[in-house]
Amino acid sequence: MAIKAVFFDIDGTFLNDRKRVSSSTKKAISQMKEDGILVGLATGRGPGFVQPFMDNLGLDFAVTYNGQYILTKDRVLFTSPIDKK
How far apart are CA 16 and CA 73, in angstroms? Predict the structure, then answer.
């Protein structure tokens, strides 16, 4: 079975101990994208935090707020906000 998408968590996976994306991670992302694999982030953090990574690394999507807000480069795919009550 072929891999179609890869999700990175943020801390300790996507970002190293210095809170940076390592060169080996950038290389892996580039290779996966060349191979036609969708690459994104899955995190409890919000879309404002992940957007710069999406823009700078050409990521395809992000699952944010633990699945409550899912977006691509071009649009929001899903939202499920918590009721204020």
Answer: 24
